[in-house]
Amino acid sequence: MEKATFAAGCFWGVEAIFRQLEGVTATCVGYTGGITENPTYEEICADKTAHAEAVEITYDPARISYQDLLEVFWQQHNPTTLNRQGPDIGAQYRSAIFYHNLAQKEAAQISKALLQQSEIYRNQPIVTEISAAGTFYKAEEYHQQYLEKRGFSNYVKVLTK
């Protein structure tokens, strides 16, 4: 099993999307990329921790590739909006890839460059940060599988090309 960590706005929907993928064996929502140790949701919402809401994904590379995960990541949010996804505004909602090894770093950089050259984003700079994965702080339990627990996960669908 391997890990991948992505931030693409509010982590509830992002987690629900990745949980649908064949080969993803577990997900965990939390906070990463910032300066505050053991942050709370309230601190994250105050935009004072520099952390992003993120999803840590455990996946089986024999069943789904990191490249496949990257494709889903890019398709599920707008990587050209700085510190914002939809109505959610703040650095905690930024677009970010937190790589766990050099192969992931290279794959993320290549996929970002290719997407930037595509017809979709040629005239809009992609602002997605690509950084080494640091400490991942698990969010409070009520955030885990939030949409599933409330019966809304069937409203979130994986977009495909």
UniProtKB/TrEMBL annotation:
UniProt cross-references to InterPro entries, sorted A to Z: Met_Sox_Rdtase_MsrA_dom (IPR002569), Met_Sox_Rdtase_MsrA_sf (IPR036509)
Keywords: Oxidoreductase
Gene3D superfamilies, per the entry: Peptide methionine sulphoxide reductase MsrA (3.30.1060.10)
Family affiliation: Belongs to the MsrA Met sulfoxide reductase family.
NCBIfam families per the UniProt record, alphabetical: msrA (TIGR00401)
Source superkingdom: Bacteria
Active-site feature positions: 10
Occurrences of domain Peptide methionine sulphoxide reductase MsrA (ranges): 3-151
Identification of the protein by name: Peptide methionine sulfoxide reductase MsrA
Function (record text): Has an important function as a repair enzyme for proteins that have been inactivated by oxidation. Catalyzes the reversible oxidation-reduction of methionine sulfoxide in proteins to methionine.
Entry keyword annotation includes Oxidoreductase: yes
EC annotation from Swiss-Prot or TrEMBL: 1.8.4.11
A Gene Ontology molecular function term of the record: peptide-methionine (S)-S-oxide reductase activity
UniProt keyword Oxidoreductase, yes or no: yes
Pfam families: PMSR
Top EC class of this enzyme: oxidoreductase
Catalysed reaction, written as an equation: [thioredoxin]-disulfide + L-methionine + H2O = L-methionine (S)-S-oxide + [thioredoxin]-dithiol; L-methionyl-[protein] + [thioredoxin]-disulfide + H2O = L-methionyl-(S)-S-oxide-[protein] + [thioredoxin]-dithiol
